[in-house]
Input
Amino acid sequence: MGRPLNLHKVGGPVSKAGQQLSVKANISGTVVTAGLLQQKKQRSFVVVDGSGNKLTCTFVDSATPDIGEMSLKVTPASGPAFFAKKITNRYLWDFAGAKFSWAFNASGTKVVAEAV
Output
């Protein structure tokens, strides 16, 4: 699986204080904001929504994921926003295979990326 994402720093329920990755996930038929709890594979994580519902979801290239899918929208330094295919502590990849370094923006509300 390579180097897994350190979820102690950026994961957890969406109500957790501090910077954390939030995804749009379809846990029970509706797309909701969810937090990452545990990494299962390179592209799959156990996610939890604000109501405590949990499901293993996989990254997809869509703003409207189906049940068991999630998306993470990324804003690059230049160019249009895209969805992440996989993410590690330092890098993320888009669905075209391009590699980016990532960080949170100054307010901690968006994931921003720069091509590597």
Notes: The CA atoms of residues 34 and 49 lie 4 Å apart.
